[in-house]
Design brief:
The chain is an alpha/beta fold. The protein has nine helices and 15 strands. Strand 11 and strand 12 form a beta hairpin. The mean pLDDT is about 95. The chain binds 5-S-methyl-1-O-phosphono-5-thio-D-ribulose.
């Protein structure tokens, strides 16, 4: 896919407001990290790799604002704290913020980030920070390309796939994870493929965003309500389920959009592959298993309404966990840019197979 949800035009950072898709394609200018934190929190930009890149770009914008290095550095540190806490589940966000801070701190202390003109030159310091943000973005695009190739080789014969949430260009720097694999299959499989996309309540990332991307790419697809997913997997001829992830523990336990766990259970019952596709920036080596993954709880109002329309009695209690954790033992393979690791039983510190055979 060649479509990114961000645009850097000189010093201007533009973001495609995903809350308005598919009805309207509106690009908003993000002038500082506060605006980016707001955009991430309200899901104007979302998807694990995309929010990491968004935070990195926001820190670059912050670093380029007026002032000497110490003032700018203080603002970047404060912005980093705010961005980091916007969404807790996707590790890519904290990972990108930490990587940016390493460069900011090294430059402010006169380290490698400041090598061009010394620690006192705010423009050189800001340039080193922007270069790091652009590197994070570029590396994500490269990871998407590699994941598409590795993931596609797991499915030499299958044609009918189901996916959940949105894992395409909009969720990344412009490539894709699970949807990137499906696009690669669509482009290379003679006779083509068919995709079933879940709506992904409550915020409808599948209906609004994945359907929009599938149509852009001309991939034959059908939208189903989340409640039809198990039935479709067991009785609809689905041959593989592909999803992304927001955080993966060392044993392969994978957090992803709420509803993913049910898809994995249905795939196990149907005896079809359930494959997680995510860049290595989604691996959290600090976690032995998924029990330590913090699940984001969002506003219950997202459950009791669809958009502006209330669907439940006023004031009715609701819960809104945004993610669930699928045990690694239910995952057939985990694909990163390094290759594919096969379950059951993962140790994601170990090698990935760069020429994975069929699932
Ligand atoms: O709440 P969202 O829309 O940010 O959730 C996104 C997902 O769950 C994706 O599946 C995940 O981030 C992987 S995207 C490449």
């Amino acid at each position: 896919m060649s479509f990114a949800p961000f645009r850097l035009e000189g010093d201007r950072l533009l973001l495609l407001d995903q809350t308005l898709l598919p009805e309207r394609e509106v690009w908003i200018e993000v002038r500082d990290a506060t605006a980016m934190a707001d955009a991430i929190a309200r899901l104007a930009v979302r998807g694990a790799p995309a929010i990491g890149i968004a935070a990195a770009l926001a820190l670059a914008i912050e670093a380029a604002r007026e002032g000497e290095v110490p003032q700018r550095h203080a603002r970047v540190e404060e912005a980093a704290r705010a961005l980091r806490s916007c969404r807790p589940t996707a590790v890519n966000l904290a990972w990108a913020v930490d990587r940016m801070l390493r460069v900011a701190r090294a430059g402010a202390a006169g380290g490698p980030g400041a090598k061009a003109s010394g620690p006192g030159d705010p423009n050189a310091w800001a340039a080193s920070i922007r270069a790091e943000a652009e590197a994070i973005w570029r590396e994500d695009l490269e990871a998407s390309r590699a994941m598409a190739a590795h993931g596609a080789s797991l499915f030499p014969d299958q044609r009918r796939f189901l996916t959940h949430c949105n894992t395409g260009s909009l969720a990344t720097g412009g490539g894709g994870t699970a949807l990137g694999v499906l696009l690669a299959l669509h482009r290379t499989r003679s006779g083509g493929i068919e995709v079933w996309a879940t709506e992904t309540r409550p915020l409808l990332q599948g209906a609004r965003l994945t359907a929009w991307e599938l149509r852009r790419e001309g991939i034959p697809a059908t939208l189903i309500p989340d409640s039809a997913a198990a039935h479709t997997i067991l009785h609809g001829g689905i041959q593989g389920v592909l999803v992304g992830a927001d955080r993966i523990a060392r044993n392969g336990d994978a957090a992803n959009k709420i509803g993913t766990l049910g898809l994995a259970l249905a795939a196990r019952e149907a005896g079809i592959p359930f494959v997680v596709v995510a860049p290595s920036t989604t691996l959290d080596a600090s976690l032995a298993d998924g029990s330590g993954i913090v699940i984001e709880e969002r506003d219950p109002g997202e459950v009791t309404s669809i958009g502006a329309v209330r669907t439940a009695p006023e004031g009715f209690p609701a819960r809104n966990p945004a993610f669930d954790v699928t045990p690694g033992r239910l995952i057939t393979a985990i694909v990163t840019e390094r290759g594919a690791a096969r379950g059951p039983g993962y140790d994601l510190g170990s090698a990935f197979d760069t020429e994975p055979g069929p699932c």
